[in-house]
Each structure stands twice: as C-alpha cells, then as structure tokens.
Amino acid sequence: MDDAQELLGRGQDIAQLRADLDQYSILLIGPRRIGKTELLKRLVSHPGRGWRAVRVDLEGLDAIDGAVNRIAAKLAEAGLGPNAVGDALERIREVSVGPVGLSREGREDPGPWARLEQAIAVALHALPNDERLALLLDEVPWWLDSLRQAGDDAQARQALAQLRYLRDPKGQTPRLRMVLTGSVALAGLARSLNASAEINDLLPIELGPLDAAAGRTLFEEELLRRGIHCTAEAAKAAHKMAGGSPHWIKLLAQRIQGTTRAEASDVNDAVQRLMSPRLRHLFDDEGRAHLLRRHGPERGARLRWMLTAAAGHDDGVPAQALLAVALSEAGLVRAEAQEDLYTLVDEFYLEEVDGRYRFVNPLLRRWWLKYGSLP
Ligand SMILES: Nc1ncnc2c1ncn2[C@@H]1O[C@H](COP(=O)(O)OP(=O)(O)OP(=O)(O)O)[C@@H](O)[C@H]1O
Ligand SMILES: [Mg+2]
C-alpha cells in the first residue's frame, strides 16, 4: 500500500481514532478481516502530531513473559528502549508494580509485570516531553485465550487487570494510551472471565465495512493491477457480495478471469470459483476453526447449527428459529440459547435487521450453505 496515501476508505476512521485517543484508551472492534490491523499499522506510520505509536501483535504467545518480552522489544525497536535513556535508567528501576498482589488466587510472581511497567516508564522517558505513547496491542483475545488454556482463568484476569493499571495510573496525566484489538470480541471474553470491569475504561470503537464508494474503488484498483477494467455494475456487485470487507473484495478481484472488462456476470463466476472445494480453506478459519477454538467442540457445534439455520435464507431468520435450534440440545436453558445468539452477533457472524438474523457477509453465507454443516 502506498504509504503517502490515506488508507483507502479509512480516512474518517483514522481521524476518529486519533481524536479519541486524546482522551481515551480504546477497544477497537469489528468483523474478521475488516481492516483492524491495517488501521493500527497506519497509525504507526502516521500517528499524528504529538504521538508515537507502537504496534505489538500478541498472537502465538501463551505466557505473560512472552508478551512482556515482545512489547519491550517493540518499544526498543521504535527507539524507546533502555539505550535511549542511558543514566536515567537507574531512577526508572524504582517503579512499583500494580495490582498483581490483588489477584484472587494469591500473590503471583511479579517479575514480568514489573518489567513491563519498567519498559513503559523507560519508553515514556525516552519520548520528547510533548509526545505521548500509543501502545497498540493486536490479537489480545487470542493471547488471553492461550493464557487460559495454559493455566487457569486467573492469569488471563490478571493480565487484563495489569494492562488496565498500566494505562490508568492513579492521579497522573497519562502519557500512555492503549488500543486493544483482535479478531475475537474482547468484551465477550472479558465477560466470561468475570473481568468486564477491567476493560470498562476503554472507549469502544467499531470498524465497519468500507462504504460503497471505497469498496468499488478497491475492486477496480485490484483489477487494474492485472490490466482488467470493470463496469460500475461489476464493482457494485463485488462490494455487495463481499459485504464491504476489503479482504473479500480482494479475493473476488483475484478470481476474475478470462476477460479484460469485467461485468456483473464475471463477479458471479468469481463467486462460484471461490466456492470450489479446492478453495474451501479460504473460509475454514471463520467457518470452523474459530468457533471450535473459541467455544470448544460442544458449544462450537451448536453455534454452527445455528449458523446453518441462518444461512438458509437471504434475509436471515427470526430469533425464534435460531433459539429453537439451540434449545433442541438436551438440557440447554433459554438464557444459554439467548447467549449463543448474542455471541454470534458479538463475533460478527450475524446481524439483526428488523427482527431477523442474517449473515453479515453474503459471501460467507454462500460458503456456509455449501460447507458449513460438513464436519
Ligand atoms: N482500507 C483497506 N484498503 C485495502 N486493503 C485493505 C484495507 N483494509 C484491510 N485491507 C486488507 O484486508 C485484509 C484484512 O485486513 P486486516 O488483517 O487488517 O483485518 P483484521 O480486521 O485485522 O483481520 P483479523 O480479524 O483477522 O485480525 C488484508 O489483506 C489487508 O491488507
Ligand atoms: Mg487483525
């Protein structure tokens, strides 16, 4: 992507994010592959006046230590490590550590959290006085999930509490803001950890689909790279079929074949090609892996049946129909079925329009009809 250009279709989102960061730390939410990571990268390259932004991807880490090391390394890479402050380091070493001891399961080893607090203190010291630090933490929920799997919920709760403590030092003007995001809804995860309070200081910002003009432009640009022109109808059809998701728009553009001027029917052909068994893996993450990994085999299977029921109709189905699917499982009570439905909306599989629940992305719905109920 051309660095000098604004990120396509995201000018307003970035302006909003920069403005809100002035006052708040942020919880950035949005569907899979909608462009959250891309937005964070843009903030790193163009943070705006008075800001330095550092992005850290926490995916693949299953311990506190690993995350702390990665954050410290990224700060150092950005020129905000111990080398940048020299002698001042000794004074910074005095920093205290936050609510580690408050963990319900008793006092944990304060080592990594103390190191993180120190690394942040060093970074803030290395920054010019008139600059603030935006620490952009990507894939936070996957990391918390790994902590849960590796140990118990207490570790994940503690991580949320510590991050909150770090961005919210009592009685100081914070020079640190955080943006937390990931491909899974953090709010639902925090709720299941009984730790919602640890993120209630974050301002939620939802990144939506590209608007129609940006979606069409992206499709046209992707085709032009391959010397293919397209009609306005074709670009419109692609944007609609992809639900405005840049990722799916690009995938559709890649599958346009055998023409130098794409029409709407070529977009339909591209959709058919994307549904080929050979390309099934392109959707497997959303279609299967995600639900099983997040919710385990039993609930994961139930959520998949509900999605299969919703996929049957273009306009979706009423809540009752989906609740009935969940409740057909022996022993499930209505509140749990309702929670399942909320989860599918929270995780951006379904949206509610006029009392009906439908897929947010028509392309994924097509895929689901074909493969969703297969093992
Ligand atoms: N504004 C945009 N213009 C062009 N391409 C974009 C834009 N936003 C995202 N993309 C592309 O879409 C794909 C998905 O973007 P990205 O990885 O940022 O999404 P995400 O929301 O972080 O996904 P996940 O939920 O999986 O973490 C990438 O290939 C990215 O380059
Ligand atoms: Mg991402």
What does it look like?
This protein has 375 residues and is α/β, with parallel strands linked by helices. It folds into 3 domains: 11-206, Rossmann fold (3-Layer(aba) Sandwich); 212-274, Helicase, Ruva Protein, domain 3 (Orthogonal Bundle); 279-372, Winged helix-like DNA-binding domain superfamily/Winged helix DNA-binding domain (Arc Repressor Mutant, subunit A, Orthogonal Bundle). It contains 16 helices and 10 strands. The strands form 3 sheets. The protein has a 5-stranded parallel β-sheet, with helices on both faces. A 3-stranded antiparallel β-sheet has the order 8-10-9. A hairpin with a 2-residue loop joins strand 9 and strand 10 (356-359). The protein is globular. Magnesium ion binds at residues 36-37, 138, 183.
Annotation keywords:
375 residues; Rossmann fold; Helicase, Ruva Protein, domain 3; Arc Repressor Mutant, subunit A; five-stranded parallel β-sheet; three-stranded antiparallel β-sheet; globular; binds magnesium ion
